Amino acid sequence: MESDAVNGPFRRILLDHALRYPAWQIQDLYKLIHQASRGSGHAVEDYGQALRWLETELAHLPVGPGEPLIDPISADGAIVRVHLPALLARGFSPRLLLDAFVQTSSAFHGSIQLLEEQWQEAAALSTQGRLAFDPAELNSFILDIRALGYPAVHHSVRYSHLYQPAYRVVARFALPPEWNS
Predict the structure, then answer these.
(1) I want to staple 24 with a disulfide (CB 3.0 to 4.6 A). Which of 13, 28, 30, 110 is the partner?
(2) Whole-angstrom Cα distance, residue 83 to residue 67?
């Protein structure tokens, strides 16, 4: 019998990402889980540098598949990806996004325990054949990444090439209220 956790909101997030990004790799699955449980993984030490990084990325945004502005990635909806093309399409201020990103990086640190629980949810879905990952490969990956202290990782080359991700991970509470409507 499946646990309540596997039947819950995070399961739906995993299955949604599997449908939206069928070519994702184990590393991309881990990145999603890491962001959902630990936040962005980036500390903002220099606001000006972070602003220049964001402005450069915005100036070179590829035309890609449509993404929602707000993409909840945590089971409670508190941690989201804000997709940059949707941000620009709606005319919202990149500085407000950067402010939310900075606030999130200093206020949200998440939990390794939650990361491990969510990885187990993904492993259960894989064992059930609901996620197209080999359970043994998932186990091997998490053992290796655990030995490294659960670091943040980049998207796989394949995912980056096919889906051209451009987003920031932020806490929903840090976003302007009008972005949530």
Answers:
(1) 28
(2) 7
Specify whether the CB–CB gap between 40 and 54 falls below 8 A.
Answer: no
What's the pLDDT tens digit per position in 10-60? Answer: 999 999 999 999 999 999 999 999 999 998 766 677 888 888 989 999 998
Classify residue 113 as exposed, middle or buried by CB count within 10 Å of its CB (0-12, 13-18, 19+).
exposed
Structure tokens at 48: 């000006």
C-alpha count within 13 angstroms, C-beta hemisphere, residue 70 = 20
Which residue type is seen at 91? G
Residue the block writes with tokens 């996004």: 97
Full-model pTM = 0.91
Tens digits of residue pLDDT in 125-161: 999 999 999 999 999 999 999 999 999 999 999 999 9
End-to-end CA distance of the chain, in Å?
Answer: 37
